[in-house]
C-alpha cells in the first residue's frame, strides 16, 4: 500500500498523476483550525512521496443536520475558510468538491498533481544503514482527548494526579500547532538530502505506518524504532489510562502527523538542522534500517523523548 495513487498519463508519457483522498470528523472545537488541520492532513500524503507542488484540491464537506441552522452555517463556513487558507499557504487552491448533510460534520478533501516521473519519491528504496527521522512529535490523540476531560470532573479525576491543567493546555496547543503545520518543507528537504523512502504517520500510529512502509521495500530490510518523541506528559497520561491509546507501543493514532523518512546516515544532521532553522520545530532521529524481512518493530529498550 502507498500513501497516494500514482498512475501513468497516457498522453504525457514522462508524467504521472499523483492523487489522494482523506476526510474525518472534527477533533477540535475551533472549526477554522479544524479546516486547516484537514487540509494539512490531505496534503501530507502528497508530501510523503516528494510532491511539493500540489496542482489542485477538492474539498469533501458534510454540514451537520443536528446543529441549529445558524450554528451550522457558521461552523461550516469556518471549516471551509480554514481549509482554503492553508491550501493557499501551500501554493495550491480549492477548485470544487462535494458537500452533503450528515448528523456529524465532516471535513477533508482530494489532492491531485501532475508530476514528472523523476519527481515522485516512490516509497520503496530504503537500504540497510539508513536512519529513520520523524518530523513531528507523537501524542496528538492523547492530548486532544485528554484536553476535553478538563471540565468533566469524573474523567479529569482519572488523570489529574499525573498531569496539571497547565501541562494539558500546553500539550493541546502543541498538538494544534503540529497538526496544522504543513510537511512541505520536509518534502523539499527529502529531495535535497537524498531520502530513499517516506510515509506520513497518521491513523495507524508510528509502528503501523512503519510496518506498511517496510512491506513496500525492494530490499530485504527491517525498521527498528528506538526513540519515540512524545509531547510532554502524554506518555504519563496514557500509562495512567492503562495504555488506552497504546502510545508507547507505537499504535496511537495521529492526525496530520509527521513524515517518517529513510535518510542516508551521513545526511541526517544537515536535514535536521535545516528543518529546524526553517520551521523552529525539531526533526527527531527515531530508528534505523537494518537487514531483515520487511518488518518494523519497537525496540525493547525504546527511549521516550518528551518534547
TrEMBL record:
Question: A single GO BP annotation from the record?
Answer: selenocysteine biosynthetic process
- PurM-like N-terminal domain residues are 4-115
One GO cellular-component annotation of the UniProt record comes to: cytoplasm
Q: Which domain of life is it from?
A: Eukaryota
**Which Pfam families does this UniProt record tie to the protein?**
AIRS (PF00586), AIRS_C (PF02769)
Keyword annotations for this protein, in alphabetical order, are: ATP-binding, Kinase, Nucleotide-binding, Selenium, Transferase
Please name the InterPro entries in this protein's record. PurM-like_C_dom, PurM-like_C_sf, PurM-like_N, PurM-like_N_sf, SPS/SelD
Question: Boundaries of each PurM-like C-terminal domain copy?
Answer: 128-296
Q: Which GO terms describe its molecular function?
A: ATP binding; selenide, water dikinase activity
Instruction: Specify the protein name.
Output: Selenide, water dikinase
Amino acid at each position: 500500500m502507498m500513501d497516494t495513487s500514482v498512475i501513468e498519463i497516457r498522453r504525457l508519457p514522462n508524467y504521472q498523476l499523483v492523487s489522494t483522498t482523506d476526510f474525518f470528523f472534527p477533533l477540535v472545537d475551533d472549526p477554522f483550525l479544524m479546516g486547516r488541520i484537514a487540509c494539512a492532513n490531505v496534503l501530507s500524503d502528497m508530501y510523503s512521496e516528494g510532491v511539493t507542488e500540489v496542482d489542485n484540491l477538492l474539498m469533501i464537506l458534510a454540514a451537520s443536520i443536528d446543529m441549529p441552522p445558524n450554528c451550522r452555517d457558521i461552523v461550516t463556513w469556518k471549516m471551509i475558510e480554514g481549509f482554503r487558507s492553508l491550501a493557499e499557504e501551500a501554493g495550491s487552491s480549492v477548485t470544487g468538491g462535494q458537500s452533503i448533510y450528515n448528523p456529524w460534520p465532516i471535513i477533508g478533501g482530494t489532492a491531485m498533481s501532475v508530476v514528472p516521473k523523476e519527481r515522485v519519491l516512490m516509497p520503496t528504496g530504503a537500504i540497510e544503514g539508513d536512519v529513520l527521522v520523524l518530523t513531528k512529535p507523537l501524542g496528538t490523540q492523547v492530548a486532544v482527548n485528554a484536553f476535553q476531560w478538563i471540565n468533566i470532573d469524573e474523567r479529569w479525576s482519572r488523570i489529574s494526579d499525573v498531569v496539571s491543567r497547565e501541562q494539558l493546555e500546553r500539550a493541546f496547543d502543541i498538538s494544534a500547532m503540529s497538526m496544522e503545520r504543513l510537511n512541505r518543507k520536509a518534502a523539499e528537504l527529502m529531495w535535497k538530502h537524498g531520502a530513499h523512502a517516506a510515509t506520513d504517520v497518521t491513523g495507524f500510529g508510528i509502528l503501523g505506518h512503519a510496518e506498511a512502509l517496510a512491506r513496500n521495500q525492494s530490499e530485504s530490510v527491517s525498521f527498528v524504532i528506538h526513540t519515540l518523541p512524545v509531547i510532554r506528559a502524554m506518555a504519563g497520561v496514557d500509562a495512567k489510562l492503562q495504555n488506552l491509546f497504546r502510545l508507547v507501543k507505537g499504535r496511537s493514532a495521529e492526525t496530520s502527523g509527521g513524515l517518517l523518512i529513510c535518510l542516508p546516515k551521513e545526511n541526517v544532521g544537515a536535514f535536521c538542522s535545516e528543518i529546524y532553522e526553517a520551521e523552529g520545530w525539531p526533526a527527531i532521529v527515531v530508528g534505523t534500517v537494518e537487514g531483515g524481512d520487511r518488518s518494523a518493530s519497537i525496540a525493547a529498550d525504546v527511549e521516550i523523548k518528551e518534547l
